[in-house]
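Backbone geometry:
***
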Amino acid sequence: MGDIQKDTVRNSLLRLMPRESFEAIAPHLEHVDLPRGTELSAPNETPLHAYFPESGIASIVARSPQGQHAEIGIFGRDGMTPTAMVLDAESDPYSIFMQVEGRGYRLASDQLKLALKDRACLNLLTRYSQALSVQGAYTSLSNAVHHIDERLARWILMCHDRTDGDEISLTHEFLSIMLAVRRPSVTTALHLLEGRKLIYSERGMIIVRDRSALEDFAKDAYGECEREYERLIGPLR
């Protein structure tokens, strides 16, 4: 597992973790590849590991008994899973998996439980759990009141927050899950954003051309949960 130094990790929560807590778990952190589709947590099952991504984007998806599904949140180097363990719950009903490949740290669940005995560590991860809850709430609001073009702009901005550079690996399939719409609707919305020169889209890739204008286009669909994360944890970018 190697000698992992706190100031070299790229996951925000690990970097902000109290030094004593980090040093206690560091020997147990395993640096792993996280290919697209990697399952980080299964619905209603007690996870064996916690994950702290350094790159890539993980998707939190809710599914109905009839198989309907929609994404309710994302995280990358800004977050971790499972928050259920932080909140003293053994599991949650969501499917959590990598939508954009990356790398990160894996930690045995029992080691995370030991770290959570440190009040400062528990407070940090509880604040993150609150920030993620707020993200889910504003996703629900956006799905209810915003046009698909604005919702797409919001999701691109959220992914851009968690990505180095301006290129984001996003497939139409992923976007259709994120927005809970059919793929033709995604294509139409992408063409609109391209026509305004906000993004450039090609197969499996979106390039942000004008972030400031993209934020203006998203209007109030973007920004509130980002401000909450910054208040509770720190800057996303």
